[in-house]
UniProtKB/TrEMBL annotation:
Gene3D superfamilies: Cystine-knot cytokines (2.10.90.10)
Signal sequence, renumbered to the chain: 1-18
A GO term from the CC aspect: bursicon neuropeptide hormone complex
GO MF annotations in UniProt: G protein-coupled receptor binding; neuropeptide hormone activity
Lineage: Eukaryota, Metazoa, Ecdysozoa, Arthropoda, Hexapoda
Record's keyword annotation contains Signal: yes
InterPro entries with a match to the protein in the record: Bursicon_suB, Cystine-knot_cytokine
This protein's name: Partner of bursicon
Domain of life: Eukaryota
BP GO annotations: G protein-coupled receptor signaling pathway
Keywords in alphabetical order: Signal
Length: 136
């Protein structure tokens, strides 16, 4: 057997043994809590009020299989496949912030000023995607 064929065979066997030892994917949609602060300004750019609150949201977390394998086709000599855990679908929610304050830090209690609705998008499903692939 020629040296080149032996090397390719060795690389293939090494690659197959590495692939069988790859960890399982564990990309999940998990509950989380974040603190949101939103400021509201008038048409002249002056601060009118600041509202904040703790909000329960989903997040993507986990690991995905990525690999580097020898390649005679690529210029670097290796074929890299990287996968990342991220959202497969986003849903829009309206969150009501109920702790609102005027520019002096006084809590607002008047009807209409004591809360603020904020739209946010959060993951409703997460899964592994090829890194850098934004064409979903």
């Amino acid at each position: 057997m020629s040296t080149e064929k032996l090397l390719i065979f060795f690389l293939f066997v090494s690659y197959v043994s590495c692939v069988s030892e790859l960890p399982e994917e564990s990309c999940e949609t998990l509950p989380s809590e974040i603190h949101i602060t939103k400021e509201e300004f008038d048409e002249l750019g002056r601060l009118q009020r600041t509202c904040n609150g703790e909000v329960a949201v989903n997040k993507c977390e986990g690991s995905c299989r990525s690999q580097v394998q020898p390649s005679v086709i690529t210029p670097t000599g290796f074929l890299k496949e990287c996968y990342c855990c991220r959202e497969s679908y986003l849903r829009e929610r309206v969150i009501t912030l109920t702790h609102c304050y005027d520019p002096d830090g006084v809590r607002l209690t008047g009807q209409g000023d004591n809360s603020m609705d904020v739209k946010l998008r959060e993951p409703s499903e997460c899964k592994c995607y090829k890194c850098g692939d934004f064409s979903r």
